[in-house]
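Moderator note: this is an archived Q&A kept for reference. The question asked for a predicted structure of one protein chain; the sequence and the answer are reproduced below.
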Amino acid sequence: MIRLQKAIADSGFCSRRKAEEYIINGKVIVNGEIVTELGTKVNSSDEIMVDGNVITKQDKEYYVFYKPRGIICSTNDDKGRKTVVDFFDSNKRLYPVGRLDYDTTGIIFLTNDGEFTNMILHPKNNIPKVYIAKLEGIISGYEINKIKSGVIIDGYKIIPDRVKLKSADKKSNTCIVEIIVHDGKNHEVKKIFESVRHNVIKLKRESIGFIDLTGLKSGEYRKLTIKEVKQLYAYSNDKKRK
């Protein structure tokens, strides 16, 4: 038997944290009875309904996707725009692990595993995300050091793992900067550079942990191997210890 919130997350319906919210708010029914206790355990024969949806355990799938510009990081869009899920031919309930902005390109994972999602996104696991940003203006050493010392975003102090000027073009008054973060806040990288008065013109996420976009073109994806998934968990545990 396993905890109810883990069973919900394993189904791919949502993350474990979101499942806990559903339980606390009385939106989870097990075998016809509302359950609000987080410690409740269930087995594979129990019928579980979450917010009116019957959930079933799915085989877990994990993908690396090279998100193009102009694609929504969601399972659907009320404006009818194309989403990351539209690129996939799978009968599983896939969803993106976190988000990239509409105009941001680069790597994102898709899965139906809530526990994996939580592991990748939770700041305590210190999973680094590498971004390459094209900025308006040429960032100074003083501004880079100011960012390295920590930036307050939405009441939370963000300290990047790395900030490095890659190149500068005085003619166009732009520069290319590599930044590595692990927090995963909304619009995090853009807000970091805005804090020193540099707007982001283009933004690409190059890698998550040790997984990058090697072999993929924009709009393409591949499956993560079971070995890679296990290595990501091990990588997370190693980063956590440090």
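Archived answer notes: The domain at 2-55 is CATH 3.10.290.10 (Structural Genomics Hypothetical 15.5 Kd Protein In mrcA-pckA Intergenic Region; Chain A).
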